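Hi P.,

Sorry for the delay on this. The queue was packed all week, but I finally got your sequence through. Input first:
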Amino acid sequence: MKIEFETDINGYQEARKFKLLIDSILKHEKLDQSLNSLASSLQEQLKEFLSNPEFADFTDGGSDHTYSASHDESLTSGISHLLGGLFGPSKHEVELSKQRQALIARAEHAEHSAFEALAETGEIGRERDQLKEKLKQLEAKLANTEENA
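Then the structure:
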């Protein structure tokens, strides 16, 4: 992967921030070999870009080491989002997604079962009403035959 930045103060700042991000990833994240290799490659490209003599005057009054542990936490959460965008979901996110999908499937099944039960209850209610009506008709018919007899 080849990255490019503008050769102005904005490009310098973007590259510097991206280098901090990559350095933090390599320092704090456990990466598989291919991701580690990619991050190391990006780190070298960034070092090369930032060492350009054109940027000798581009400093913001701080050094890369001024980012301490207080910044590491926000960086780490940012790193997770960046990695998710660049490299796809982590194993934990994939597992959570599978669990979420299983829960959704169970909920849909429960909803479907509830609607089937409701439909069945309505059907049973109609059959009961028909039987009640038929019973009334038979009772009326029986009453008529008893009166005539």
